Amino acid sequence: MLLFPIPAYFMLRYTDNIQLADFFQLDKLHYIPILLGIELGLFYACIAIVLMNTGLLVKERAFQKKMLQQLNMNMGDMLFLSLCAGIGEELLFRIGVQHYLGPIYASLIFVALHGYFDPRNWRTTLYGVLVTPFIFLIAYGLNYFGLWFCIAAHAAYDLLLFYVYGKRPKEVNYE
């Protein structure tokens, strides 16, 4: 995940002469956009959790829960993976892909590459349709709040879903 931004940086470096500090938007690294991003990410993760607990998406929830539990992550692992995804994917898509294709196409490609537009499984596609507005909000938030808002929203969303679906049930010792 942390290698994802490298091609985006080099493309922007050589096509638009973007410097490293501008690529990371270090001038926009402020706590207000980060807090707003965390708030958006947690809010939308709660919406996703509620929707995943509906009868329509029970199989998708079970699949994600099983997959995440097999990773046997502790809270540190969940935080690390959430930050890696937030930083790596947002630098690639928001700063790189979105620069060339705009927010709508970059967002649709983002959701599609995550496998959420699956013509073989309408329930997975339904989840993709449900998560797409969140990705649009992040994409358009880049212009108003900057990259760090996008990273915070993405990382917070992932972290809450990792926590809710990735925590393993406690084993009971009957001895």
Notes on the protein architecture:
- The protein has 175 residues and is mainly alpha-helical.
- The chain is 77% helix and 0% strand.
- The chain contains 7 helices and no strands.
- It has helices at residues 5-16, 20-23, 31-52, 58-70, 75-113, 122-145, 147-166.
- The longest helix has 39 residues, at 75-113.
- It is globular and about 50 Å long.
- The model has no long low-confidence stretch (mean pLDDT 90).
Task: Give a quick rundown of the structure.
By secondary structure, the chain is an all-alpha fold. The chain has helices at residues 5-16, 20-23, 31-52, 58-70, 75-113, 122-145, 147-166.
List the helices and strands and how they pair.
Blueprint: H1 5-16, H2 20-23, H3 31-52, H4 58-70, H5 75-113, H6 122-145, H7 147-166
Helix pairs in contact: 1-5, 3-6, 3-7, 4-7, 5-6, 5-7, 6-7
**How much beta, percentage-wise?**
under 5%
Q: How many beta-strand runs?
A: 0
Please give the share of residues in helix: over 70%
Oligomeric grouping of the chains: single chain
- Low-pLDDT runs of 5+ residues are none
Order of helices and strands: HHHHHHH
Secondary structural class:
mainly alpha
Biggest β-sheet: count, sense, barrel? none
